[in-house]
Amino acid sequence: MLLKFFRRPLPIVLTSIILLAIGLWVKTLVTKFTVPFYFDSIQMPLYKLIIEWIPNNFIVSTIIAFALSLIVGLWLLGLNSKHIIIKQRTYIPTLIYIIIATSILPLQRLSPAVFAAFFILPSINHLLSIYQSQNVLDHLYRAGFYVGLASLFYAPASAFLIGLLVSAIVIKSTNTKEILAAIGGFLTPWFFFIFILYIFDNTSTIAELLTINFRTEAELNLEWHQYIPVGFMALLLLTTGLFVADSIGHEKINVRKFFTVFFWYTATGIITLVFLPTVSYEMAYILAIPLAFQFSYYFSYAKNKFWSELLFSLIIVLAIVAQFI
After folding, report:
1. What integer best gives the mean pLDDT of the chain?
2. pTM
3. Quick check: 151 and 116 in contact, CB under 8 A?
4. Do the beta carbons of residue 110 and residue 64 sit within 8 Å?
């Protein structure tokens, strides 16, 4: 069965995941299919800078988006090895991340959320590191700094500063100094950005930039059939969430705290998606990070083999079918 195969920590499994990831992007590369987003014309400063450096070539920009998403997916394995979030050695988090973040065709393009996810992940790494570290201030500063960088690519990513602060309190009771360290880290990239604008006497653009990036109405350019995998992921979110909530009490304290962090990051992403008009399904690149661990925990430890095999198989089947409809 598929789940039994992908559970094994073998090189052939990792190779299969990478080949599947490439296969999911083939149609986009061949047909040059793309969906316009608001951020094609309304861009945060670091995203605009990157876009100006990248050649105006669809294939190049798509390959960069694919490479970044694959790097983040593989990076999850390093995060799991470092913090032992899931005790079983498995490549499933990479597979889940790639499917959630990129299996819907409109997501297979360069976007600010791709870069934001690339910085949100090390932010989470530093956040989890405060559990057994004596250098809490440094880790919280760096965690906030990476969220600040992410927000200069993708303005809605700034909401994850709230998820970061709540999660820091969950992991380790923090004092005012530590909270301010995280906030200071977040503000540091913004300080340098505003300083550069000040040098060029252009600070008046900041308010307009933030207003446009937080209030522009994003359109959900999805076909009806593309809501099927979205609905299935929502169902899986509920199913795996209930499983984790029921079984996480048997885990070590650090694992319980880490999954609470993932809950708050998932909640932050969903709330941002619902209440910020700018946010569209590109948020999947960031949401896929905590969800990859939640889903993987379920598929690693679920005792009901029939349902876990069925749900896992459906994830892959729907991702593949989506490329042909």
Report:
1. 90
2. 0.94
3. yes
4. yes
Tens digit of each residue's pLDDT (9 = 90 or more) over 55-102: 778 899 999 999 999 999 999 999 999 999 998 889 999 999 999 999
Q: Cα–Cα distance between 178 and 149 in angstroms, integer?
A: 19
Residue 282, CA distances (Å) to 38, 106, 190, 288 in order: 11, 9, 23, 10
Query: At 106, which amino acid appears?
Result: P
Say how far apart CA 208 and CA 213 lie, in whole Å: 9
The C-alpha R_g of the chain, in whole angstroms, comes to 20
User: Which pLDDT value is given to residue 218?
Assistant: 75
* pLDDT class of 36 with cuts at 50, 70, 90: confident
Query: Tokens 């400063």, residue?
Result: 45
- Helix or strand or coil: residue 174? coil
CB 221 within 8 A of CB 36: yes
Give the integer Cα–Cα distance in Å for 262 and 127.
Answer: 11
Domain boundaries in the chain?
Answer: 2-321
Supply φ then ψ for residue 202, to 5 degrees: -135, 25
- Whole-number pLDDT of residue 208: 81
